[in-house]
Amino acid sequence: MDRIEKALSKLTSKAREQVKNIIKALQMGHFDNLDIKKLKGESGIFRARKGKLRIIYQIRNNHIFILKIGFRKENTYKLSLL
């Protein structure tokens, strides 16, 4: 089980549905209704926010790579990409 699957398994069904909708919107390029910001100090890494839920992602070669999913905590924005 990878990190994303593990994070999704810890979420409630309502939160999983929110993640699914956010990811669909990102894939379709509908950024209008999303709260998206570029992360400071990170090259090409963004976060999408829905309430306390955060999705950290990166766009490479027109593909979206989900790096982290979870609720806002102190370690939410600390990425270990190795």
The CATH architecture term is 2-Layer Sandwich
Task: Give the biggest beta sheet.
Answer: 4 strands, antiparallel
Question: Percentage of helical residues?
Answer: 25-40%
**Helical segment count:** 2
**CATH topological fold name:** YaeB-like fold
Mean pLDDT: 84
Query: What is the overall silhouette?
Result: globular
CATH level 4 superfamily:
RelE-like
Largest sheet, spatial ordering of strands: 1-2-3-4
Integer count of domains:
1
Question: How would you describe this structure to a colleague?
Answer:
- The protein has one domain (3-71): RelE-like (YaeB-like fold).
- It is 29% helix and 33% strand.
- It is built from two helices and four strands; from the N terminus they run ααββββ.
- Strands 1-2-3-4 form a four-stranded antiparallel sheet.
- Strand 1 (35-38) and strand 2 (45-50) form a beta hairpin.
- With 82 residues, it is α+β, with helices and mostly antiparallel strands.
List keywords for this structure.
alpha+beta, 82 residues, YaeB-like fold, 29% helix, 33% strand, 4 strands
Overview in brief:
With 82 residues, this protein is an alpha+beta fold.
Chart the SSEs and their pairings.
Blueprint: H1 3-10, H2 13-28, E1 35-38, E2 45-50, E3 53-60, E4 63-71
Antiparallel strand pairs: 1-2, 2-3, 3-4
